[in-house]
Amino acid sequence: ARTGGSVLPRKARFPHHLFKRNADSWSGLSWMHESVALFSTTVKFLLSAVGNGMVLLTYQRSRKRMGASVVLYVNLALADLSCCTLFYPVSIASYFQHAWQGGSASCAYCGFGYHVLSLCSMLTVTAISSLRYLKVCNYSFYAVWTKAANMQKTCCFIWLVAAVWSSFPLLGWGKYILEPPGLSCIVGGGDNQTSVSDTVYVVCSFSLFTLIPFLIIVVPQCQIICTVARASCQVSGERIRNRMNRIEKRLTWMFFCVSLGFVMAWFPYTMVSFLFFFNKGHQYMALWGFVILGLLAKFSHVYNPFIYFFINLGF
């Protein structure tokens, strides 16, 4: 913009006096990039709250006619809704202010919360994948484990494991630190040196809660799809059996969409976070790349409810 034939300085174009600007918290992103991230996070907040809220409301109204295994889908929706309502507001405020809000205390709070809910989602999807495999390939074992009491115990165990493992950085094994853009917190080590204990924690987290679950999710799904495809090719004149085959195909494709989306959303982000731990200089990726992958990972909180409603007969 011009005033009296002169160009206004850059500081006059945006209200920088509203933003914190110090070496520890300034995001380093352009105004446009942060605006896009702010808009995306706000939209995800609204869609996730509505979609996952509808899943919980539908389950509350129709749980008597739903199978016991639906509890795992509800557990996944509960984790996504909790992440949306408890921690998205902090991210939105940080994007709006161009800096992390609350200092190290809020970083520990959000890092712990994100880690708990991410592990809960990961373990829940892994449990669903295992149950789907048992139902299609080993039904006798599936019938034993899908009782309501076992499903409730599974959900409690998932939350317990996620909470205990995520609490270790609060006790000194690992640490919650700001990622390079300074607008979100992840598991990491010290700024200058990375201790052996922190390295062990990060490697164990990546192996136990990323690589192994992804293998458990992906490999059984391939076998399930092959099994269902072979069964659907068999000719049968029984109307009931044909209807059950159609339902099973829809359920198979529903969870295939959930698992594929989950893996595609979270694996790139976890890989980049893992690399960042060993390369604090983040030269291997631009700051905007961290933001894009983080937004993509958290987008899984949005699309799962719509998959349930459009594909699953239970919803």
Give short descriptive properties of this protein.
315 residues, two-stranded antiparallel ribbon, two-stranded antiparallel sheet, 4 strands, disordered N terminus, Rhopdopsin 7-helix transmembrane proteins, mainly alpha
Write up this protein.
- The chain has 315 residues and is mainly α.
- The protein has one domain: Rhopdopsin 7-helix transmembrane proteins, CATH 1.20.1070.10.
- The protein contains nine helices and four strands, in the order E-E-H-H-H-H-H-E-E-H-H-H-H.
- The protein has helices spanning 31-62, 70-97, 103-137, 139-145, 148-167, 196-233, 239-278, 287-298, 300-311, and strands at 2-3, 6-7, 175-178, 185-188.
- It has a two-stranded antiparallel ribbon with strand order 1-2.
- It is globular and about 55 Å long.
- The termini are far apart.
- InterPro entries: GPCR_opsins, GPCR_Rhodpsn, GPCR_Rhodpsn_7TM.
> Order of strands side by side in the largest beta sheet?
1-2
Q: Can you tell me the overall shape?
A: globular
Instruction: Return the string of H and E elements.
Output: EEHHHHHEEHHHH
Query: Mean pLDDT score, rounded?
Result: 77
Give the topology:
Layout: E1 2-3, E2 6-7, H1 31-62, H2 70-97, H3 103-137, H4 139-145, H5 148-167, E3 175-178, E4 185-188, H6 196-233, H7 239-278, H8 287-298, H9 300-311
Antiparallel strand pairs: 1-2, 3-4
Helix pairs in contact: 1-2, 1-8, 1-9, 2-3, 2-9, 3-4, 3-5, 3-6, 3-7, 6-7, 7-8, 7-9
Main location: membrane
Transmembrane segments: 36-58, 70-92, 112-134, 155-174, 200-220, 251-278, 284-311
InterPro entries: GPCR_opsins (IPR050125), GPCR_Rhodpsn (IPR000276), GPCR_Rhodpsn_7TM (IPR017452)
